């Protein structure tokens, strides 16, 4: 029982503040909004959509977020390769920088 309580306390005291701080910091850097206002806004939005839609809303939000993240990675990789001059140029620059050494 004590281990379970310790895990819950660890989660509440150390993980959740990061969950609020990181998006608030992103909003602060993009908009210049006060960090405390941005953190409060993040809390309000999360509580609102959880109360209105329940856990189903949270799961749907997480699913959309995963698709958007994977799509963004693909778009950045494709655009970066295109603007650099093609896959050959990417490998040439990686080779020049010593980034293709897999085994020493």
How would you explain this protein's 3D organization?
The chain has helices at residues 2-31, 35-84, 87-96. The chain has one domain (2-96). 87% of the residues lie in helices and 0% in strands. Helix 1 (2-31) crosses helix 2 (35-84).
Helical residues, percent: over 70%
Structural class computed from helices and strand pairing:
mainly alpha
Number of strands: 0
Query: How far is the first residue's CA from the last residue's CA?
Result: 48 Å
Low-confidence stretches: none
> In one word, what is the shape?
elongated
List the helices and strands and how they pair.
Layout: H1 2-31, H2 35-84, H3 87-96
Helix pairs in contact: 1-2
Protein traits:
mainly alpha, single chain, 104 residues
Short description:
By secondary structure, the chain is mainly alpha-helical.
């Amino acid at each position: 029982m004590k281990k379970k309580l310790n895990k819950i306390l660890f989660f509440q005291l150390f993980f959740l503040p990061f969950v609020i701080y990181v998006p608030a910091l992103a909003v602060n850097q993009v908009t210049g909004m006060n960090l405390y206002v941005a953190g409060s806004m993040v809390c309000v939005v999360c509580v609102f959509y959880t109360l209105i839609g329940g856990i189903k809303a949270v799961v749907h939000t997480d699913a959309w977020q995963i698709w958007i993240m994977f799509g963004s990675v693909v778009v950045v990789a494709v655009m970066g390769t295109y603007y650099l001059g093609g896959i050959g140029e990417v490998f040439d620059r990686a080779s020049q920088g010593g980034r293709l050494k897999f085994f020493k």
